[in-house]
């Protein structure tokens, strides 16, 4: 880790001016970011900010570009079918964001004439827009002097001011420090500059301190503790849930999918039929045998080797997969308004969320072996 000799004199407070000068030279090129001298598109800013919630820039880029190609305006997005939007979102995770995205587009198109409101107060009234997102849209798209604090900003503030109190207890303090540095003018460039600094220089591991415009002002660096900040409370172990998925293939090579209920985890997404996901309390083998008996149709199922593992925010999931080739009579019993039959070789474009993609790959790999 870069270090410097400690001094009894604390570093001088950093300035927005030095950061803005750095940002002018080193800003990231992002598909939703306006070019220098150009006005930001509120629709693009809103779309990117919703997608970026708890998701990396690298993961968001292809989704953002696909959404903008399909629905270049908020009106076009509002007119899209929710099933189509959910399918396009598949794999990005946190699917309530997609439902709220579509709902918000409808409100903006209908109640605001297709124009996003420009204040934090009005933006917070829209579906799916919380304090952080409202501040980000207000400052980036409309040039308001708002305080934007994401994980990158928290890390920069914790290091520059040597805040050793762990997160989340230190959130209020870090927000206060960020607000004190936010300028009245060029606030949008400043906000994006701090985020870029955290993403490219003041990184979680091996920060590039010699390249930092605030290195001389960094109390964490002066105390040789920068890389240890921000500190965090110990994480609690995630509970484990178990369940089963049933891979059922018709004689014509189509596999059965269905759409989940609109509410709840993965709400509105397409899935491979399965059991409820319940808290694990006992033998995994016994749970697998019990789940195998809950198949939606009486057919000759075989339990595939291994399990499909997937970690959500609040729990870890282990799924056993049971596979069957159905007769015409068995397949007919499964027909209904929720049934979606998709050719196995087209499963990749069926709009499955990540956990269901894992199930499909697990089943296809063993059927080919």
Overview of the molecule:
- There is one protein chain.
- The chain starts with 15 loop residues before the first helix and ends with a helix.
- With 369 residues, it is of the alpha+beta class.
- A hairpin with a 4-residue loop joins strand 6 and strand 7 (316-325).
- 35% of the residues are buried.
- The chain is built from 15 helices and eight strands.
- The mean pLDDT is 91.
- Strands 1, 4, 5, 6 and 7 form a five-stranded mixed sheet that branches. It has a three-stranded antiparallel sheet with strand order 3-2-8, with no helix packed on it.
- It folds into two domains: 16-228, Endonuclease III, domain 1; 240-368, Alpha-Beta Complex (Nucleoside Triphosphate Pyrophosphohydrolase).
Give keywords.
369 residues; 8 strands; 11% strand; Endonuclease III, domain 1; three-stranded antiparallel sheet; Nucleoside Triphosphate Pyrophosphohydrolase; 2 domains; globular; five-stranded mixed sheet; alpha+beta
